[in-house]
Amino acid sequence: MADTTMEEFEALLNESLEMDTPDEGSVVKGKVIAIEAGQAIIDVGYKMEGRVELKEFAEPGEAPSVAVGDEVEVFLRSAENARGEAVISREMARREEAWDRLEKAYADDARVEGAIFGRVKGGFTVDLGGAVAFLPGSQVDVRPVRDAGPLMGLKQPFQILKMDRRRGNIVVSRRAILEESRAEQRAEVIGKLQEGDSVDGVVKNITEYGAFVDLGGVDGLLHVTDMAWRRVNHPSEILTIGETVKVQVIKINKETHRISLGMKQLQEDPWDLVGAKYPLASVHKGRVTNITDYGAFVELEPGVEGLVHVSEMSWTKKNVHPGKIVSTSQEVDVMVLEIDGSKRRVSLGLKQTMRNPWEQFAESNPEGTQVEGEVKNITEFGLFIGLEGDIDGMVHLSDLSWDERGEEAIQSYHKNDVVQAVVSEVDIEKERISLSIKALGGDKFADAVGGVKRGTIITVEVTAIEEGGVEVEYEGMKSFIRRSDLARDRADQRPERFNVGDKIDVRVTNIDSKTRRLGLSIKAREIAEEKEAVEQYGSSDSGASLGDILGAALKGDE
Question: What family classification does the UniProt entry report for this protein (predicted)?
Fold first, then answer.
């Protein structure tokens, strides 16, 4: 009997020695046998017990959940401490367990659950059920998050971006999951939308060029040009953030999931009635909405704008910026010049609503009227004179003086001089007014020679005797009789035969109104007289001498 008990004891002893004692530094199973003083006492077998702080059993932001009799896994740090107890840790066990689980999730590209529990430089710390991960600030949400308070301690899914067990590094993202779910949501919303649908949306964001409207999980762009038929300078004129608006889906890009929206498409197009409302040549009141280098846009009614080209703005201001003629928001009268319905363009005229100043000038200043004005400009071909109605007239060099050459006469004029002139011609189409200064006192030459024709005999007075002939005067107009015209006979063609003050009869051989000269000849007069005498008193063929005929003629005169 004793033998058997010895053998049995030996067998038991061997068995107990053969039983593996757990390795330090591994995870073991244990049973909670008591809870006291904020600690759980755990029997890990092998006649070993250890203590774990209760808080190690708590999930972030939750109360500890552990009770006597629970089976738990703990990390055995050392088999015995000074008090003869095993040194164990629930947290370290959880970490080991978590890393195994996370590495598998990372390999499978699966989501993991965790809770944000702390804030660190550049982001947040996340408890992934035992392992601590880093969540960069940029990975928290799709849009920058100002206040992460509401996200703290919430159990939510994360995506592991990278992990390194040796260094204990894990980086996670919440944004990747949101983007994925947004993409699913977008696809679902877009799937239900059709081009041409009218939908309600909420204005989320306003930019220079338009507004983003949330259609229930998906944003569409409402471009500024599609908000109203009229010109909108900035979307904030029409919309406010948070406002609900009715919009029409204009276009859906299936690849990029971009949605274009419009508001004006839901209103009546004012262009449908433009042709009937604004007939050609009709005059309307409008408001200047925009000024450019090439003209000004004038709104005839909301949604209908026309362009007044710079060339149609003023009769007189030709090379001036439109902003010098009109100002924004000014009310103006305009005339409809052209309508192009397909291009949605109206051409307007501003000057057409005012009278043509050249027409007006021609009416009130017929040719021959005397006018006064300031010398605006002096050029090589004449003077420009400012006239009423903001227009200019031109005095050509040849119209400055009767006596002087134009180049000489123009020297006596200066800018800003006030001068008088006579209107000689108005060309309305070419917008040209010709003036004459020399015609002011009338045309002395024309007045003097008014009754004189070629062949007339006139009496002139000798004013000077020269080598080549004699200078004479008729009615204040000077002329010159050349030597060869002083007499029929060569012997009498001597200027010294005459004296200053002599009155002599001469025949008019030429009237040149351009050079304002009379051609005069004594010789021509003598020849004409002889011819007449011969015709009247006989023919030289009948044998009568010229002396007899002239004698008879003179007797007849007596």
Answer: Belongs to the bacterial ribosomal protein bS1 family.
* Contact criterion met (CB below 8 Å) for 227 and 239: yes
Name the CATH superfamily housing domain 357-436: Nucleic acid-binding proteins (2.40.50.140)
Question: Quick one: tokens of 123?
Answer: 């982001």
> Given this model, what pLDDT does residue 349 score?
92
In this structure, which topology does domain 270-353 adopt according to CATH? OB fold (Dihydrolipoamide Acetyltransferase, E2P) (2.40.50)
Section 276-302 average pLDDT: 90
Give CB contacts under 8 A, 24+ apart, made by 509-518: 509/454, 510/454, 511/449, 511/452, 511/453, 511/454, 513/445, 513/446, 516/402, 516/445, 516/477, 517/479, 517/480, 518/449, 518/452, 518/474, 518/477, 518/479
pLDDT at 144: 72
| Residue that is written with structure tokens 């500024």 in the block | 224
Q: Find out whether 54 and 66 touch, Cβ atoms under 8 Å.
A: yes
Q: Which of 436, 443, 439 is nearest to 383 (CA)?
A: 436
Across 261-277, average pLDDT: 82
340 pLDDT higher than 90: no
Q: Is the pLDDT of residue 32 over 60?
A: yes
Q: Where in the chain is the domain with CATH 2.40.50.140?
A: 24-108, 109-179, 193-266, 270-353, 357-436, 444-537
- Homologous superfamily, domain 24-108: Nucleic acid-binding proteins (2.40.50.140)
Give φ, ψ of 233 to 5 degrees: -75, -40
Q: Does domain 109-179 have CATH number 3.30.70.920?
A: no
Examine the pLDDT at 298 and tell me if it is beyond 90: yes
Q: Give the residue ranges of DSSP H helices in 320-390.
A: 357-364
Contact in structure between 485 and 523 (CB atoms under 8 Å): yes
Q: Quote the tokens at residue 144.
A: 């920058």
* Record: fold of 444-537: OB fold (Dihydrolipoamide Acetyltransferase, E2P) (2.40.50)
* DSSP letters for 402-470: SSS-HHHHGGG--TT-EEEEEEEEEETTTTEEEEESTTTT--HHHHHTTT--TT-EEEEEEEEEETTEE
Residues 428 and 362: beta-carbon distance below 8 Å: yes
Tell me the three-class secondary structure of 117-139, residue by residue: EEEECCEEEEECCCCEEEEEHHH
Confidence bin at 292 (pLDDT 50/70/90): very high
Which residues share a beta bridge with 133? 126
Q: What value, to the nearest 5°, has the Cα angle with vertex 21 and ends 19 and 27?
A: 130
pLDDT digits (tens, 9 = 90+) for 531-545: 887 877 765 555 555
In whole angstroms, give the CA distance from residue 367 to residue 26: 122
Does 145 score more than 60 pLDDT?
yes
pLDDT digits (tens, 9 = 90+) for 182-235: 777 777 777 777 777 788 888 888 888 888 888 777 788 888 888 888 778 888
Q: How many Å apart are CA 530 and CA 324, to the nearest integer?
A: 77
pLDDT tens sequence across 92-108: 667 777 787 888 888 88
Name the band, by pLDDT with cuts 50, 70 and 90, for residue 331.
Answer: very high
CATH number of the structural domain 193-266: 2.40.50.140
